[in-house]
Amino acid sequence: MGDEPRDREPGDHRPDESGRTSMFASLRIPNYRLFYAGMAVSMTGSWMQATAQAWLVLTLSGSASVLGLIVALQALPVLLIGPYAGVIADRVDRRRLLIVLQSMMGLLAAALAVITLTGVVEVWHVGVLAVMLGLGHAFEQPARQAFIHQIVGKDLIRNAVTLNSVMVNAARAVGPAVAGVVLGLVGSGLCFAVNAVSFVAVVASLLALDSSQITAETPIPRAKGQLREGLRYVRGSPALWIPLATMALVGTLTYNFPVTLPAAADFVFDGGPEALGFMTSAMGVGAVVGGLVVAARGNTGLRPLTLAAFGFGIAVGATALAPNLPTAICALFGVGWLSVTFMSTGNATLQLNSEPRMRGRVMALWSVAFMGSTPIGGPIVGAIIETSTARVGLAVGAVACLLAGALAYVAARRSGAALP
To answer: Name one GO cellular component term (predicted).
Structure first.
């Protein structure tokens, strides 16, 4: 069976000769529109929880290093079992797997809400639940990324991936802003409760999808050596391993915003949870604006990825040098814009260069590079902040982006990969 969903007439939403497509082309597909709406509600709740959890840990411990450790614990399962989770995503029905995982993560959010609202929460409780939530993310990320391709097909995957990033970052704009207000008025427990309820939306959307309009991809049979097979497959393609290596470096030292931003809001700009909410929301707004531009005009490939890495590094560096909170908020708008450009370019490049039977394993490695690198970088960046300032932590991330862009360019040239 082909890659095109059956509810599209041939050529209806395909890019034109210039590679451009309608900004919201993939949302014309009913299944993707439904899935997108459910995820939007859930992601908003998740960003509320992420903001509230960071503030709760910082309040309970008073330590950026402890906060970095909690962030690392949540990402640790992705690092340890992420590649195997990709094998599972290629073996099973991805829709059913997503329903189970989203339900499980909703229950974990409910448990955190209960112990927080009852006043018994301690840092170690948050750590245990963070590990369990990380287990859910380890299996959910590759399954969800590969499932998007089944909904929209090859022609619209870049548009869908970019709009997915727009949605995540729109949630980043709304969720932390709401969380900042709720934290100031009520506390973190209500944020966790709202997130638990938000998972109902995505589970309901998955149950409501029209199965006849989902491109069938036959799960691979269980066999030995499938993880090694996936690693060999990636190693043999520069169009796959270069984006993964680039994201691994950036993910380790740059995407530690749950550590750097709370520390900057509190220790550098002397703000409270409201300041953290505004800073995180500025990133989200920038990502929404940038993502919409990329959705309509963006490109895939190693050259756009390299340029996005350089731009991302410059924006993070500007944030590190910001003299006051308003300037930092303006710089974070640029961080959000370049962040979503970098992520969506890398993600779409991998999806377009992966065989269907390998896509789950390839996207699992993307999750490892993005989220699984945090257990390494989170404590490192937290320790850097503890011994210096949050500005230095941000500066380290900026340098990592610039270095990743340079290394990607050199690797592509030496491997003979196209840099169109």
So the answer is: plasma membrane
